[in-house]
């Protein structure tokens, strides 16, 4: 069922959205998508726009309510350890997903700093940044509408110690417009003696999960061919028995139950898509495939701090993941709210929070306490203790942040990692053509539109879509129906409702600067 608040917004635009559909899908094509996270919702938008009858099954009360996100990794600069090509892929994917969900983006730069305690130098990152700048220029040459991260020559900038000292003496401005204006509060609050130079400032923007959820739900509410079943748990999936003589592709029966009903219902689909996030292995077991994967429980924490003096960029302090000196990340939201990561086992990571597959099941088994957190909420004592550790960790580099206050919630969840490499950051989808089954396996949410593209290509190959000629026209030009009919204000109102329902400050549903 569609959230009633969202349904009211979509009602008057639904007919227009449907009238623009290409007539490229066979009328009887039915797809079931298990899981309404970023992957499931994005794939559903892609398929519904093609006229494919698409049903999303999501056990939570709204879509995209999963692991923490805060950052559009437009170049992957957060990760020093991944290959340059992965960074270029992340840049392309982030620009692509930004054009689908523009109202979910907070336009502000990100500051990357190498601490003095670290063995590496900021100069080590400059060749990669130049490659990313050139890749961004190439994307703009291919399509001028890809110019969503500002001027390519300003994709990154460097700041010396002398420049930061000069900026620290300037007055902050209420609405930063230039890079220097954004850097004034950094110069005032960052301990300039604990970092190496130059500081690197990149146009990697904030990504707001509440606004992303609002965008996806509003988009799907406008498509007649999209059916969203929230508060719905899938109990079982099984193959539909068919005569071998007709040489048909396998079909699937989905047994599901709404949380407010004791009755189990069934739906039959021509193609099954597993987008269950960290629980994809549960469906793999039902289907009968046994891939290798890992699952990691992670958390970020919410704090309130009124001492910044205005709007500030995101601040990243590099560190080696999982060590006591892991990366620190301070992500700003409006009105003094912040999301904090500390990539240590006492803050964001957990000593026993990484699990991999066993022989008997495709689903890695997280400890029961983390599943309980995901399903029922955190133990408040543990939450407060870890939240305070996060504040103290950031305060090592931003001393005034020690006055921040913990809040009563966190952004947390399980993250799937396909294969056996826990440093993997770019992945999309696995296809099982012979059984009409696909599994979305996105490590980063920015990969979800690419996963949707691969599934569309699979449908063309299988004859579930008649022709490729006009089926991808809206995709190529990002002519998504809801973008024509919605406004930034619409997304804000829906996002505020979602934030409140999930127990977060409504300020976190807003952005400091929209696209």
UniProtKB/TrEMBL annotation:
Keyword Oxidoreductase belongs to the record: yes
InterPro entries in the record: FAD-dep_OxRdtase, FAD/NAD-bd_sf, HMG_CoA_Rdtase_CS
Domain FAD dependent oxidoreductase: 31-365
UniProtKB keywords: Oxidoreductase
Entry keyword Protease: no
Cited Pfam families: DAO
Highest rank taxon of the organism: Bacteria
Protein name, per record: FAD dependent oxidoreductase
Species for this entry: Pseudoalteromonas undina
Higher taxonomy: Bacteria, Pseudomonadati, Pseudomonadota, Gammaproteobacteria, Alteromonadales
